[in-house]
Amino acid sequence: MKLRIVRSLGPRRVWTLARQRLAGHRSPFFESHCELFSGSGLELGGPSRLFGAAGYAPAYSSAAALDNVNFASVTRWEGAIEAGRTFRFREGAQPGRQFIHEASALVSIPDAAYDFVLSSHMLEHSANPIKVLHEWKRVMRPGAALLLVLPHKDGTFDRYRPVTSIEHMVRDFESEMSEDDLTHFDEVLRLHDLTRDPHQPSREAFRKWVEDNQANRGVHHHVFDSLTAAQLVDRAGFEILCVEPAPIDSVVVFARLSPETGEIANSAFVDPQAHWLRNSAFVSDRQRAKG
After folding, report:
1. With bands split at pLDDT 50, 70 and 90, how would you rate the model's confidence at 76?
2. Can you tell me the mean pLDDT for 197-206?
3. For the purposes of burial, counting CB atoms within 10 Å of the CB of 190, is it exposed (0-12), middle (13-18) or buried (19 or more)?
4. 30: exposed, middle or buried (C-beta count within 10 Å: 0-12, 13-18, 19+)?
5. Cβ pair 122, 150 in contact under 8 A
6. Which secondary structure element, helix H or strand E, spans residue 67, and what is its range?
């Protein structure tokens, strides 16, 4: 399996990742704002290595308490999950509550329950990401922080698929798209890059995986670059604090639920020609910024 991962990523990309990990590569924003994640939090999906002690944004080390949500009691990534006080996010910490819910329907969680929300490589599996983000807002206190990690198409098996426009995601929200959506499945089957997906042994196995998405939730409904990640968070009504590339396949958005009412000033992040895009680590971001 390790050899296949090397082949799927390529030696240069594997070397870059290894070098960054050995150097303890961390999020610059997180390093200077870790207090945003020091209270009581909720993670959707996971647990994630990115949030662990050696990860890019080690929020597990900062959190006083952390609960978790997953969509089913058995998943391919976590195996069997038991609801209740069973979520272990850090050695020595009291286990958090494990919820079994759809990310868009946190039905047993009250309003304004958390100081921050974490999610890594989960939202792309949701058919209606704006609806999901609105539900996360409901359980966040005013001023609460969001740490959202999405796969960037340049570094993943989505590299041949077109980026999903914010207009498309808005239409999904307005039409109340549900998780049984099949809109993107033909595109996924045609353009998914199996050479970058070591978990799929063959094209036929991948087809069966896609067809069984209602049970496994493995399909990426939407494809992101850095700009669309920022536009999504903006459209959901968060104040964006920072957007960063994370090694070697992710874009990280730090945001907050503004305690103030009125217009949120995210123009510096959602402008297609923004300066930060011109200096992105991802090629397609830089190309987009050039027009």
Report:
1. confident
2. 94
3. exposed
4. buried
5. no
6. strand 65-70
